[in-house]
Amino acid sequence: MVRVLMIGAALAVMSPPLRAQTAASVIEKAVTAYKSVKTMRGGFEQTIRNPLTGTSMTARGDFQQQFPDRIAVLFTDPKGDRIIVNGAVAWLYLPSTNPGQALKIPSAAGGSSFNLTEQFLTSPATRFALTSAGSAVVGDRATHAVLLVPKKSIAEFTQATVWVDDANGLIRQFEITEPSGLVRRIRMVDARVNAKVDSGAFSFTPPKGVKVIDQTTGRSGR
Fold first, then answer.
1. Distance in angstroms (rounded) separating the CA atoms of residues 88 and 106
2. What are the sequence ranges of the domains in the chain?
3. Each residue's pLDDT tens digit, 1-43
4. What is the distance of C-alpha 108 from the center of its chain?
5. In the chain, what percentage of residues exceed pLDDT 90?
6. Which of 69-73, 141-145, 213-217 has the lowest mean pLDDT?
7. 93, exposed or middle or buried, with CB in 10 Å at 0-12, 13-18, 19+?
8. What tens digit of pLDDT does each residue of 88-142 get?
9. Where are the beta strands (DSSP E) in the chain?
10. Sign of the dihedral defined by the CA atoms of residues 215, 216, 220, 221, in that order
């Protein structure tokens, strides 16, 4: 027994310590991983919490993304809601909360707001104060989390936490605190990288009779 303990101690001395994953190294792993990502698709689960009222609501659905500026979010719960960003404009069609209308937003206003991956990974060390936020298993994936606090105010969030896959650097989950105080957490489910996206996924035609609030021109109509 003494010999076993001595051998174990010797090996511990001889073996180099495991390299700690700093916040900067975790984010840099994600930056590198996404350089090779052209498309992504899978499911998602979104939870929105209101700290003031103590209430929360959860939504689910499927997403497709073609980098850098095309996103299709199709909700299955609440069924029928969708968000489409096609590089030129963003469409918000949310009959569960705004029945009978669709909102059309310029891409400058909508693109970066919905493509949060780009926000997190564009010059992160320059734009954010980075702090390690521990490790966690998201789904069945081991991850490390990083807290990002903008050094200068941005419209999308006051702070964000991203959970980066230890194995491949993909973002498996993120949580943002919006300027309104709402906390939005989104977890990717069975996300597939560089998968074929559906033809027409990033186009949207409002259903007949739906009023379009067009913020690209200031006009509205049916």
1. 7
2. 35-221
3. 433 333 333 333 333 343 568 999 999 999 999 999 999 999 9
4. 18
5. 76
6. 213-217
7. buried
8. 899 999 999 999 999 999 876 444 557 888 889 999 999 999 999 999 999 999 9
9. 39-50, 55-66, 70-77, 79-86, 89-93, 101-106, 128-138, 141-150, 159-165, 171-177, 183-193, 211-214, 220-221
10. negative
pLDDT at 160 over 60: yes
Question: Residue 65: beta bridge partners?
Answer: 40, 71
Q: Are 170 and 191 in contact (CB under 8 A)?
A: yes
| Tokens coding 146 | 């990083």
Tokens representing residue 72 in the block = 């299709």
Burial string for 16-54 (b: 16+ CB within 10 Å, else e) reads eeeeeeebeebbbbbbebbeeeebbbeebbbeebeeeee
Domain 35-221 is in which class?
mainly beta
**What's the CA gap between 48 and 175, in Å, rounded?**
9
Cβ-count burial of 196 within 10 angstroms (0-12 exposed, 13-18 middle, 19+ buried)?
exposed
pTM: 0.84
Residue in this structure with the two tokens 């993120």, named with its chain if needed: 174
Residue entry with tokens 């997403």: 63
* In contact, 144 and 167? CB cutoff 8 Å: no
